[in-house]
Design goal:
The complex is a heterodimer of chains A (221) and B (239). Chain A has 9 helices and no strands. With 221 residues, chain A is mostly helical. In chain B, helix 2 (53-80) runs parallel beside helix 7 (195-235) and helix 3 crosses helix 5 (148-161). The A-B interface holds A 147, 151-152, 154-158, 161, 164-165, 167-169, 171, 211, 214-215, 218-219, 221 and B 78, 126, 130, 133-134, 136-137, 140-141, 144-146, 150-151, 153-154, 157-158, 160-162.
Amino acid sequence: MNGFLALIARDLRLARRQGADVAMTLAFFVVVVALFPLGLGPTPALLARIAGGVLWVTALLAAMLSFDRLFQQDADDGGLDLLALSGLPLAAVALAKAAAHWLTTGLPTVLLAPLLALTLDLPGAAYPALVAGLALGTPTVSLLGTVGAALVVGARRAGVLVALIVLPLTIPVLIFGVAAVEAGGAGLETRPHLLLLAALLAAAVPLAPLAAGAALRQAVE
Amino acid sequence: MHRFANPTRFLRLANVLLPWLGVAAVLLLGSGLWLGLFRSPADYQQGETVRIMYVHVPAAWVALAGYSTLALSSLAFLVWKHPLADLAARAASPIGAGFTAIALVTGALWGQPMWGTWWVWDARLTSVLVLFFLYVGHMALTNAFDDPERGGRAGAVLALVGVVNLPIIKFSVDWWNTLHQPASVLRMGGSAIDPAMLTPLFVMAGGYFAVFAAALLLRIRALYAERRLRQLRLSLPDA
């Protein structure tokens, strides 16, 4: 447990000292969201209709940007071998990495999304569903991304590859996340969609680290 | 299975099986097409378009069976480290992707006259599209490493992760009540399809599976030869 928390603390410290990495991801999120009103025309009715989908898709893309570095940095400087020898199971290493990834990119995305939703005229009733959906969905994305990141350690063009592998797996999260926002905006019950998102998270918390741990084992062998 | 992990023994078996599979594929596909196109009735609602079923449904079956082959080979490779299992996984994914593409395209050709649209984002179509992406991701991942061994292991883990999609595809038509029709061949209480249509369907399915098996063996043989060639080239003194 100590090693687990120490690993999260280490990753958070690294993220704080190299603050530009986190800031870049968030800047990407903002810039891409800002492209949609410019590309589709600033009609408020249209933007309100697509706001949920735009925010969710952009949040997914922003998360993808940081996955190729998740284990590669450690693999390059030998840290990954030390982690493998540390006695901490590799699945726990993966879970700690996913937790740190969510705290540094997922959580800021959740906090930033309602602000960006303002610029897209999202109906007021949809905000709770947007924030709750992102809060439940982005940890799942971080966990799935950890699997992809562990798989591509040492690969050529790892950044594109990790997105190609992980994005199809995130489709259920996207579907239920956007459905929750739409239901909220239309004044319907959002609870079923949020419960499904929570179920996906509950399945991903134990299973994704196991898969990522197996992938890491292959990478350090 | 371990008996055939020996490449020499496997190749001997493959060389014996391949001609038979080829003949079976030609005969089954030929007679299946003949039965399906000329000897089976048109549907009372769909008319002649129902015949697309004979090329569409078996392709979807083989697409799923191809992924099962990929996943089982990957499991065998991770557990027992048989190099031949790695080759089988590499051989299966492009073939599976091909059959998935056939299922998607023939489904679109059927959907245009019947549903009035080439594509809908219904649960079955979306999950099969994800299957196609998984195949593509597997191919990209296995070939992304300078060391083929490392690529094979990473691809094997990904193939096993993707297995979650198989039950979703199978049950998507029951869990979500969307456009794609529910299961009608393999279901509780017997098939809902008339034998006049079921026979050509099963003959075509036999043909598709023979093509799949033949292509799989051919590709394993070719990949094995390629790997041998690579080893020989690396062992040359002034390579």
